């Protein structure tokens, strides 16, 4: 049984990206092609990962640079946990989208 939109929201880690995604879809409204594809194409930003790990966006950007770059910095200590959390949020959101689309055959 698919979870309700309210259960989906409560089960999420609660990042700003998830809150924005939930706000962007009116749950009482019909899921159309544009809304479904927008949700599918939603991307994760440096800011969202930084918020999850509780570091600055600059720290994320600098850690992504080549080690040879002058601005390179070591990745944040908790980077693995942060990426796992963001990935889990993305998986949960995609599962919710799949369940909605299976229920909406149009």
Overview of the structural elements:
There is one protein chain. The chain has 106 residues and is mainly alpha-helical. Helix content is 62%, strand content 0%. It contains six helices and no strands. The longest helix has 25 residues, at 79-103. Mean pLDDT is 81; it is low at 3-12.
Number of helices: 6
Looking at the structure, what is the overall shape? elongated
Detail the poorly predicted runs. 3-12
Average pLDDT for all residues: 81
Structural class: mainly alpha
* Number of extended strands: 0
Mind telling me the C-alpha Rg? 16 Å
Secondary-structure element string: HHHHHH
Oligomer: single chain
Portion in helices: 55-70%
Q: What portion of residues belong to β-strands?
A: under 5%
* Main β-sheet description: none
Distance between the amino and carboxyl termini: 20 Å
Write a compact overview of the structure shown.
By secondary structure, the chain is mainly α. It is 62% helix and 0% strand.
Features of the shown structure:
disordered N terminus; single chain; 106 residues; 6 helices; mainly alpha
Which helices and strands occur, and which strands form pairs?
Blueprint: H1 5-11, H2 16-24, H3 33-41, H4 46-53, H5 57-64, H6 79-103
């Amino acid at each position: 049984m698919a979870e309700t939109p309210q259960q989906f929201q409560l089960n999420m880690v609660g990042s700003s990206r998830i809150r924005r995604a939930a706000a962007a879809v009116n749950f009482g409204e019909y899921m159309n092609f544009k809304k479904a594809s927008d949700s599918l194409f939603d991307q994760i930003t440096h800011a969202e990962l930084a918020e999850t790990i509780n570091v600055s966006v600059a720290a994320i950007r600098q850690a992504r640079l080549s080690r040879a770059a002058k601005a390179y910095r070591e990745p944040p200590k908790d980077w693995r946990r942060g990426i796992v959390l963001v990935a889990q949020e993305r998986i949960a959101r995609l599962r919710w989208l799949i369940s909605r689309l299976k229920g909406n055959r149009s």
